[in-house]
Design goal:
Length: 189
């Protein structure tokens, strides 16, 4: 375990130190959930266009995915493991590049940003993979959104990786719940 932690710190320092001053404000902006509202509205538009009156059911299960990822990462993992974020780790003070003094909360394992974004990406991909051939690009969004956390020095790569796995599983579970509910609903009508 100690070796994994050491590799995680080394990889973080390598990736985190790939800074460009012009990119700092862009990444600080891109890490904010509110910035992505137009993207989320576009996804909602696609859902409404495809599912019409059943769009509410789809959105409910997107919410289920987010609820799962949030409970697992923020509700269980962060308080259980109590792993300091790189920005709060005493051994890394002065080694981690921070942008505008942004340090995030105290604990970072696992990344809620990664879990939430990969949960949404998995759900949306499963939902539209047969309809839109390019929908797989949504995983690039999830990756970039998650990577901002490494760039900012508030998550280790391992935090992102585990958060992404949690998200992928939550998105899959939520999608299965959606398809089961949709089948039950269609049998009733």
């Amino acid at each position: 375990m100690d070796q994994l932690i050491a590799w995680d710190q080394e990889l973080l320092l390598f990736l985190n130190n790939l800074h460009a001053s012009w990119l700092d404000p862009v990444v600080l902006w891109a890490t904010k959930t509110v910035v992505w509202i137009p993207f989320y509205l576009f996804l909602i538009y696609l859902i409404i266009k495809q599912f019409k009156s059943k769009a509410v059911l789809v959105l409910l299960f997107v919410g289920v995915s987010i609820a799962i990822t949030d409970r697992v990462t923020s509700g269980f993992m962060k308080p259980y493991f109590e792993r300091f974020r790189p920005s709060k780790e005493p051994a890394l003070v002065g080694k981690v590049l921070l942008v505008n003094g942004y340090t995030g909360g105290t604990y970072g394992f696992a990344s809620s940003h990664a879990a939430n974004s990969f949960g949404i990406a998995m759900f949306i991909w499963l939902l539209f993979r047969d309809r839109y051939s390019k929908i797989g690009w949504i995983f690039l969004w999830a990756f970039l959104f998650s990577y901002t956390r490494i760039y900012l020095g508030v998550h280790y790569p391992g935090d992102i990786l585990v958060g992404a796995v949690v998200g992928l599983l939550a998105g899959f579970i939520a999608f299965k719940g959606f398809t089961f509910s949709l089948l039950k609903l269609e049998k009733q009508t």
